[in-house]
Amino acid sequence: MRASALEGAFASASDNAGTSYVPLYGHSLGATPAQIGLLVALPNLLTNVLQVPWALLTERLGRRKQIMMLGAVGGRLLWLPLALLPWIAPSPKAAVLVLMIAVSLRAAVAGMATPAWTSLMADLVPRQVRGVYFANRNLLVNLAGFAATLLAGFLVRVGGEPGGYQLVYAFAVAAGIAAGVYMAQMPDLPWQGAPAGQGAAHPGEAREGPVPPAAATRGARARWLRLLAVFRQEPVFTRYCYTAFLWTWAVNLPAPLYAVYLVRDLGGPEAMWGLVTAANFLCTVIAQRYWGFLSQQLGEKRIMLLSGAGASILPVLWLGLPVPALAIAANGLGGFVWAGYNLASFNLLLALAPPARRTTYVAIYNSTIGLGQALGPLLGGYIADAAGIPLVFVLSTVFRAVGLWLFSRAVDTPMPAMTAADLLPLWIKWWRQQGTRAVLARPGPAL
Length: 447
Hints:
Layout: H1 2-20, H2 22-28, H3 33-49, H4 51-61, H5 64-77, H6 80-88, H7 92-110, H8 113-124, H9 130-159, H10 163-183, H11 196-199, H12 213-233, H13 235-252, H14 258-265, H15 272-298, H16 300-312, H17 314-319, H18 326-352, H19 358-387, H20 389-410, H21 426-434, H22 436-441
Helix pairs in contact: 1-9, 1-10, 2-3, 3-7, 3-19, 4-8, 4-19, 5-7, 5-8, 5-10, 6-7, 6-10, 8-19, 9-10, 9-15, 13-19, 13-20, 15-16, 15-18, 16-18, 16-20, 19-20
C-alpha cells in the first residue's frame, strides 16, 4: 500500500500539472469557448466510453497489473506531444486541432488503467480501513497536486508563451515516469473475480488455445447481455448511476471555463491559475482527515449530501467575485467540499459493486458519469459562446441541486442519525469534553 501511495503522488503531480493548464493552453492558441469545451469533452468521452471495453478486456485476460501499467504509464507519456506542440504545428489553428487529438488520445489510453486499478485497490485495502487509508493516501496525492500546480504556474510565468506550457508538459512526462516506477512495485494479488484458466471472465469460459471467431462473437455477445442485466440485478447501483450522471453533467457544464473566466472576465494573469488550483489542493489536503473520520461515523451517503450541498453553490460563488485574487478563496472552499464528496462517492461505489464483478460494475459507473463529463463541457462551451459564461455558472448550480436531491431520494443506503455536533473537528470535540479550564491547565494530546 506504500507503493500505491507514492505512485498516487507522482501520478497526481503529472495529471494535475497537465490537465490544469489544457484550457489555458488552448486559450493562448486562440481556441474559442466552444473549442475549449471540446478540449475537455472529447477526452472525457473517450476515457469513459471505453471503460466497459477496458473492463471486459481486464476480466478476459485477468491481468490487472499489466493492464493498469500499460494504461497509466502510456497515458502519461502522451503528455509529450503537448510539450512539442509549438514545433510540430504549422499554424495556431492546426495547433488547436493537434491539441484536441493529443489530449483525446492520452485520455483514451489512460482510461485503460481505471477499472483494473479500482479492482486491485479494493482487494489490497480491507473495507474496514478504506475510509482512513484513502483519506491518508488522498492527503499525499493532493499535497503532490498542490506542489505540482504551484510549479506549473511558476513555469508558465517564467517561460511565457508557449515556452512555459512546454515546460509544464515536460514536467508532466517526467512525473508520469516516476509514477510508473512505483506502480511496478505494487503487488498483483489473486483476483477473486477472475476464473480458472487464463483469466477468463466467468467460470466455464475456456481461454486456452485459439478461440474460433464464431465462439468469440458469441462470448462477446454473452458478456454484453450480462452487462445489461446488471441494471436488473442491482437496483440501488442502477439508481446511483442515473443520479451520478445528472450530477456529473451539471458539475462539468462550466468545468473548462473557470480558467478562461479568471483571465478574460476577471482580468487575472494566466500564472494566477496555478495559485487558484493550488488553493484547491491545499484545502483538500486539510480536509482529508476530517472527511475520512466523518465518513466512517456517518456513512458515505450522508457525507455526499453534506459536501454536495456546498459543491452546488460554487459556480454562483464565482459570479460574485469582485477581484481575481478572491478566486483563490473560492477554489479553496471547493477543495474542502470536494474532498468529502469524492472520498465518500468512491467508497460508496466500492460498497455497491459486488466483489466478483467489481471491475465491470465500476466500468459501468465510469461510463455513465463519463457521458456526463463529455456532454457537460460540450454544452457549456456552446452556451458560453452564445450567451456568456455567467449563464453556464447559474445553470450548473441549478442542476447540481436537482441531482443531489434525486440522489437523496433514489439511493437507499444506511445513513446513521447525526447532530450538528457530529460535524465538529476532533480537536474541538476533545476541547469540549475536557473543558476549557482543564485544557488550559495541562497540555493536550497530539491530534
